[in-house]
Design brief:
By secondary structure, the protein is mostly beta strands. It contains 3 helices and 25 strands. It is globular. Pfam families: PD40.
Length: 327
């Protein structure tokens, strides 16, 4: 059986029995091609990325940035009355650079990255650290920074956890192979151990960021700007084979494009692949001269080339990769 066919069967098999009750992000019918998610609400023509759903699927945290990616703010939208609400700034965000939200499987802890200071009143840090919050009866508790076992004096990015609590993340710390490498840290008795570099199968002298690891740690999808295309980043995939990661392979189009993709995520029901992309769906030339209204709509709507959140069936991603591998 081809490897990707096996992975597809595994992904479909990880869907829980509760799948009879569709999640709020479920699409009506097959979704074989990436489609902009919640157009006009979540994806609006601003710079939107890094979508993360709560385990129940009815809460969405995501990141809004300036057009030049000058500031990152985590926003939140709720699924109510069969529609996503207008996003608002998350109550813990809006002052500092915040991004990369990730829920634990029980929904009680939220990880994210931030340049917020370690002490109130101090200036913002020069680098990004990984923080987390616990849910309380009154909402999210106070954010706490992970200790120096995980955070370094360089930036850390994109925390993702396995079902056993192992933490995957990107870091620019000293001792890596390139500008940014991917690491994992095992959780033992409630404490994270010294991070391990994922090695030459994953990390290069370019930069690797944003690892999404499947809950059982069998599959890794991540973002990389490799030496031969440093001007944009693409998604790569690797497989855990007896505790070792296979040499990473680049995902095909349309999951990658000529521009940068971001924030790979597979929903907890194993059904959808979510990501963000700066691809522009507007043609280079219009079939007729644009009016001012046409131009305004093109420039200020989703698909304008800034960044939008996309959704596609996970089976479409893995089947397409199988087809490309077998040819």
């Amino acid at each position: 059986m081809p490897r990707f066919s096996f992975v597809l069967l595994f992904v479909l098999g990880m869907m829980p029995a509760m799948m009879a009750q569709p999640k709020p992000y479920a699409h009506n019918g097959a979704l074989p091609q990436p489609r902009i998610f919640a157009e006009g609400i979540v994806s609006t023509g601003d710079y939107e990325s890094h979508a993360e759903f709560s385990p129940t699927g009815d809460t969405l945290y995501f990141v809004k940035s300036g057009p030049d990616v000058s500031k990152w703010t985590i926003c939140v939208s709720y699924f109510k009355k069969n529609a996503w609400t207008k996003p608002v700034v998350a109550p813990f965000s809006g002052q500092y650079m915040d991004a990369d939200p990730f829920f634990t499987k029980d929904g009680k802890t939220l990880y994210f990255i931030s340049n917020r200071p370690l002490k109130e009143g101090d200036p913002a840090k020069a680098d990004m650290d990984i923080w987390k919050m616990q849910r309380t009866s009154a909402g999210w508790g106070k954010p706490t920074r992970l200790d120096d076992t995980i955070n370094s004096d360089k930036s850390e990015y994109y925390p993702t956890l396995t079902s056993t609590g192992t933490l995957y993340f990107g870091s620019r710390r000293e001792g890596g192979r390139g500008g940014s490498d991917l690491y994992r840290s095992v959780l033992v008795d409630g404490k994270y151990q010294t991070p391990e570099n994922l090695g030459d199968a994953i990390n290069t002298d370019g930069s690797e960021y944003e690892p999404f690891v499947f809950p059982d740690e069998r599959v890794l999808i991540f973002l990389a700007a490799r030496p031969d295309h440093l001007d944009n980043a693409d998604f790569f995939i690797s497989y855990n084979q007896d505790g070792k990661w296979s040499p990473a392979e680049k995902l095909p189009e349309p999951f990658n494009s000529p521009v940068t993709e971001f924030s790979p995520k597979v929903t907890r029901d194993g059904k959808y692949f979510f990501f963000a992309s700066s691809r522009n769906r507007n043609p280079a030339a219009s079939p007729r001269p644009e009016t001012e209204a046409d131009m305004d709509k093109r420039l200020h709507s989703a698909g304008n080339g800034l960044c939008d959140v996309y959704q596609v069936d996970i089976s479409a991603l893995l089947t397409r990769k199988t087809e490309n591998t077998e040819h």
